[in-house]
Amino acid sequence: MNHLISRAGLGILVAVAVVAGAWARSGSGSVTAQAVLTGLLLGGVYALVAMGLTLIFGVLDIVNFAHGAFMTLGMYATALLATGAGLNPYLSLLVSVPLLFGLGYAVQRHLVSRTMGGSLAAQLLLTLGIAMLLENALLLAFSGDTRTVAVSFDTPLRVLGAVADLSRVLAFAGAMGLAGAVWLLLTRTRLGTAIRAVAANPEGASLVGLDVRRLHALTFAAGTACAGAAGTLVTPLVTVEPTAGELFNIIGFVVVVLGGLGSVPGAVAGGLIVGLTEQLGGIYLPGQSPLLAVFAVFVLVLLWRPQGLFGRPA
C-alpha cells in the first residue's frame, strides 16, 4: 500500500484529465456536458464505496462480498432517522458511520478473523453468507416495501451550463471529504502508519510490537464505515430496499479492479472514470444498459493492464 500512496497525485491528475477532456469535447449546455457532470458526481460516491473495499483488500487480503449489504444498512439507518426522527439525512452520518464502524469491528473480530490465513473459498463464502444474512434480516424487519427519503432543501444548481440537484452535489462533496479523511488517516497519523506496516509485512509488524489482529479489525471497521457513509449519502438519490446495495457492490468491485486492487488513489480515479463512462454510455449507446460501456472499458483496461491502472504487477 505504501508505494501506491506515493502515487496519489498521479491518480488525481489522471482523473482530472479524463473529466477535463470529456467536458472540453462536450460543449457547455449540451446533453454530453450534463452527462459529464452527473457522471462525475455519481463517480465520487462510487469512489467512496470502492475505497472501503480496496482498504479491506489491501490490508486483510480479503474480497468482501458483504460490502453492499453494509451499505444497505447505512441506507436504512438514514431512512429510519429521516422519516422517524425527522433528522436531516446528511446529519445521520453521525449515526450511520459509528454504527457501521462498530458492526464491522465485531464482524471481523468474531467471524472474518477465523478465516484469516485460510483458503480464498472460505473467505468468499463467509462474506457472501454475511451479505445474505443481512439482506434477509432487513427483509424480515422491513419487508420488501421500498422507501424514499426526500431532502426538503433540494434545489437545482447550474454548473457551466449543466444542471445538478443539490443532493447530488452534497453526496459528491461528502464522499470526497470522507475519502480525503481516510487518506489523511493513512498518511498523517500513527494509526495509519501502523495499518500500512501491517499491509506491507504483517509478520514484521507483529515482531515490532504492533497488535496485528486489532489493526485488522480496525481496518475492516473503517472499510465498513465507508460503505455505511456511502449508503447515507445516496439515500436521497435512490429507492431503499433490502437489496439496494447489490448494484453498488458490483460497481465497487469493478472500480477496485479497474483502479488496482489495494490502491486507494486507484479507487478514486476508477470511481470517477466509471461514473463518467456509465453516464456517457447511456447517451452514445441508446437502448443499451449504461453498464455496457462500463464493462467494455473494464475489459479493455484489463487487457492493457491486468493489474489495473494503479496496481502493481503480481
Supply Rg. Answer: 19 Å
Question: Order of strands in the sheet with the most strands?
Answer: 1-2
- In total, the number of domains comes to 1
User: Mind telling me the CATH class?
Assistant: Mainly Alpha
Give the SSE order as H and E letters: HHHHHHEEHHHHHHH
**Helical stretch tally:** 13
Biggest sheet descriptor: 2 strands, antiparallel
Low-confidence stretches: 2-9
Shape: globular
Write the layout of secondary structure elements.
Layout: H1 2-5, H2 8-26, H3 31-60, H4 67-84, H5 93-110, H6 120-142, E1 156-159, E2 162-165, H7 166-188, H8 190-200, H9 202-207, H10 212-234, H11 245-259, H12 264-284, H13 291-304
Antiparallel strand pairs: 1-2
Helix pairs in contact: 2-3, 2-12, 3-7, 3-10, 3-11, 3-12, 4-5, 4-6, 4-10, 4-11, 5-10, 7-8, 7-10, 8-10, 11-12, 12-13
Characterise this structure.
- The chain is an all-alpha fold.
- The protein has one domain: ABC transporter involved in vitamin B12 uptake, BtuC.
- Helix content is 72%, strand content 3%.
- The chain has helices at residues 2-5, 8-26, 31-60, 67-84, 93-110, 120-142, 166-188, 190-200, 202-207, 212-234, 245-259, 264-284, 291-304; strands spanning 156-159, 162-165.
- A two-stranded antiparallel sheet has the order 1-2.
- A hairpin with a 2-residue loop joins strand 1 (156-159) and strand 2 (162-165).
- The protein is globular, with a radius of gyration of 19 Å.
- 48% of the residues are buried.
- Mean pLDDT is 86; it is low at 2-9.
- It is a multi-pass membrane protein.
- It is found in: Cell membrane.
- It comes from Nonomuraea harbinensis.
